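Title: Prediction job returns without error message
Component: structure pipeline
Severity: low
Priority: P3
Assignee: unassigned

Description:
Job completed but the reporter wants confirmation the result is attached to the right record. Sequence as submitted:
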Amino acid sequence: RRSGSRTAAAAETAVKVRARPRASDKSLERFAQSPDGALLAFTAKDGRVLLADARRSCWLPSELKMSGTARAVAFSERCVYASGGDATVYCWDVRSSRCLATLPDAGASPTSTLACAPNDDGGHWLFVGSEAGVVNVYSRGASPAAAPTFS
């Protein structure tokens, strides 16, 4: 019970991160929080993904860059995923900000949402929702650079 009440209290705490990186990023409404609550990832203009340290209330200096527009973002334990208008999912290592892999989503319809959930083999499921209303599910192994399998 105690851990549950701590989680609920932590979820109600607001974090204010001052001064957006660029004035052209007027809306940062699409975002995701890392599983441990330490990082926030926001979709921005020009295919950029901005990272913020939620514990220190500051922007991280590195930006993640993808081709096309950034429309959706999600975290797994070790990776941040982003996708958008080109229906390609990008996987970056959280620690190094290095792109580990790209995954062309089946159907090639622009991505509207992403989500991750742990699976039984130490990896995770990656859910990719498209504007066409289709959700594709990929199994990602424990190694983020491993080729995903379509489920």
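Comment from assignee: result matches the submitted record. Residues 71 and 84 are 4 Å apart (CA to CA).
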